[in-house]
């Protein structure tokens, strides 16, 4: 059969190779690419056929990988790698296709997916291959991750500096932690503020229909007390003498 | 109780719901992936980037074909939902994980346990 057009000749990776597995067949979407060596390197995953041509996969494009020993699903034990890209036999480029899903239902949102299987002749190597891939994947966190605010570079919490009451305040305290780190002045301030809060809360409860001398006096003074009732409509039945 | 060995990862976990997922170690959990496949297996690791490692997995691909996978690693980017198992008490799990992180950080006081930064000299 014809060569896959995305296969290129390149030298095997020299640096950061966490695991190398010779005598490994590569299979794309059920079609074999031949026998070669799989290189699990920190920068990328590469496979080179014994003839010297092969391909590389960048970790950010790899959605998942797995060890498959289910011979009902596929007749040989292998490392399964799912890639977020399309690799077509007839296409000239490796880049994900903009359109044109041939096998699947054409939902607009269907992502391109390519399924690789790496079948080592030495099945016992699968664990090591899997682990090496996990380690390398972890080196490539998602750069497009906008949802989380994971930029902690400049804000490392220096435990020792803080114990000596130097250094920046950490971004997160439990209540107990925070209390224990207050100076005596800080604790006094906290108590004062909490007292003020408690007072305004209790006067709020006074306003909520329980008539005391204080609350009646406040009305008679004509003071504007800008406190919202705890429950709207709660006082509709209250009898208040103005 | 597994807590990351990395200061940065502990800080990230402490400030996000990843901390809940890290509390699922050992639990059989179903993960829905971005491409609409699903994986059900025992959680063996979750890192701060929500990369998840599962063992003894039943994998259903997006066409519905079912297979077993001994071990699966899915990148955080491709996790859509994690079904928290019914037997897991979410609040207790989060509290336990936070305590584990704080134990690592503060254990033994000054001169024992893990130091977030190496000390220049001993007191």
From TrEMBL, chain A:
GO terms for cellular component: cytoskeleton; cytosol; methylosome; pICln-Sm protein complex; plasma membrane; spliceosomal complex. Gene3D superfamilies: Pleckstrin-homology domain (PH domain)/Phosphotyrosine-binding domain (PTB). Keywords: Cytoplasm, Cytoskeleton, mRNA processing, mRNA splicing, Nucleus. GO terms for biological process: cell volume homeostasis; chloride transport; mRNA cis splicing, via spliceosome; spliceosomal snRNP assembly. It holds the Pfam family Voldacs. It comes from the Eukaryota. It is found in: Cytoplasm, Cytoskeleton; Cytoplasm, Cytosol; Nucleus. Belongs to the pICln (TC 1.A.47) family. PANTHER family: CHLORIDE CONDUCTANCE REGULATORY PROTEIN ICLN, METHYLOSOME SUBUNIT PICLN. Involved in both the assembly of spliceosomal snRNPs and the methylation of Sm proteins. Chaperone that regulates the assembly of spliceosomal U1, U2, U4 and U5 small nuclear ribonucleoproteins (snRNPs), the building blocks of the spliceosome, and thereby plays an important role in the splicing of cellular pre-mRNAs. Most spliceosomal snRNPs contain a common set of Sm proteins SNRPB, SNRPD1, SNRPD2, SNRPD3, SNRPE, SNRPF and SNRPG that assemble in a heptameric protein ring on the Sm site of the small nuclear RNA to form the core snRNP (Sm core). This is Methylosome subunit pICln. It comes from Eudyptes filholi (Southern rockhopper penguin). The lineage of its organism: Eukaryota, Metazoa, Chordata, Craniata, Vertebrata.
Automatic annotation (TrEMBL), chain B:
One of its GO terms (biological process) is mRNA 3'-end processing by stem-loop binding and cleavage. GO terms for cellular component: cytoplasmic U snRNP body; nuclear body. Coiled coil: none annotated. SUPFAM superfamilies: Sm-like ribonucleoproteins. GO terms for molecular function: histone pre-mRNA DCP binding; U7 snRNA binding. Residues 16-88 form the Sm domain. Pfam families: LSM (PF01423). InterPro entries: LSM_dom_sf, Sm, Sm_dom_euk/arc, U7_snRNA_Sm-like. It comes from the Eukaryota. This is U7 snRNA-associated Sm-like protein LSm10.
